[in-house]
Design goal:
It is built from 7 helices and no strands. It has 187 residues and is an all-alpha fold. The termini are far apart.
Length: 187
């Protein structure tokens, strides 16, 4: 059993004795793999475009017309809903940023549509970030529970109003509180 412990200790000492890779070496390894990945992506894009070119050259006139109609229909559908998508993206981005958008009639929504017909998130984010932040003040009424608000005569009847009313109407107005200011002598 003592031999097993000695083997474990010497194995641990061997790994501890090896030089640990430093940060620069690790970063160099990461950069190498990123470069290889980008190179493979470029090769894939090139091969895909060559394949598409080959497919295009092998198509009959009818197949070419069908493909053109598909592309035209896709572009028409995207142009119909593109502005709605842009509007929705603008509202979502402005809400997340805490800013108020100007009215849709003041915006050129088509400027936020990318070449593919989809909303361009980069342009939307740049626009929303350029808008001024809304005031941090409360957006609800601050005069709740503070007592009488406004003029004491608001909604109250005057003596002239009472002179044109029947006794029954006067009693109804009194019950509704429309004669309170007159009865307190404020009018």
């Amino acid at each position: 059993m003592d031999e097993n412990k000695n083997d474990q200790v010497s194995a641990e000492a061997g790994t501890a004795g090896e030089a640990q890779p430093d940060a620069a070496a690790l970063q160099a390894e990461i950069d190498k793999w990123k470069a290889l990945s980008r190179k493979n992506e470029d090769r894939f894009k090139q091969a895909s475009s060559e394949l598409e070119g080959f497919r295009q050259s092998q198509m009959t006139d009818t197949e070419k017309a069908i493909e053109a109609a598909k592309v035209e229909a896709r572009n028409a559908a995207l142009s119909e809903v593109g502005n709605k998508l842009v509007n929705a993206e603008l509202r979502a981005a402005s809400y997340a940023a805490g800013v108020t958008l100007p009215g849709a009639e003041f915006l050129n929504l088509s400027s936020f549509v990318g070449e593919d017909g989809n909303p361009d998130s980069a342009r939307i984010e740049a626009f929303v970030s350029s808008l001024p932040k809304s005031g941090s003040g409360a957006s609800y009424a601050q005069n709740i529970g503070l007592g009488r608000q406004g003029s004491p005569a608001a909604g109250q009847l005057t003596r002239e109003d009472l002179s044109r009313m029947s006794p029954r109407e006067i009693n109804e107005a009194r019950a509704a509180g429309k004669c309170d200011a007159l009865m307190r002598g404020e009018m």
